[in-house]
Amino acid sequence: MTATPHWLVDLDMHGIAERLKRLREERGLTQTRLAELLGMAARSYNRWERGGHVPSLEMLIKAADVFQVTLDELVGRSEISTTPSIRNAELQQLVHDVDELPDREQQALIVVIDGLVKSAQVSRTVSRRAGAKRIPSRARG
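RE: above sequence
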């Protein structure tokens, strides 16, 4: 029988559960989506947030990576310093991967992404204007 490491005994498991929930909500993730990113069942993740199950060190490290915080921040040994600039964990990973590509390939991706963003902005603007021009049925008389 192995003894429980002293650092695990000192952790505030209820505090970890609260931080997991807060970080997940700040990043706009559902429990199901976060569980997918961590490679586990949603039901198991739910137990973490309720404080009914203690994540392994390996899973805490994965969660810290997904949330873009340090392990110390996740377990409450230090305050969470910032909100990530990219809240979507998959997009964050892609940005990291793209950052390692040669400049020429990065520039090509910038052109594509810029085009997609501008197209979405135009679509939203057109939709808003079309919605604003509609006259509510009660106002017509």
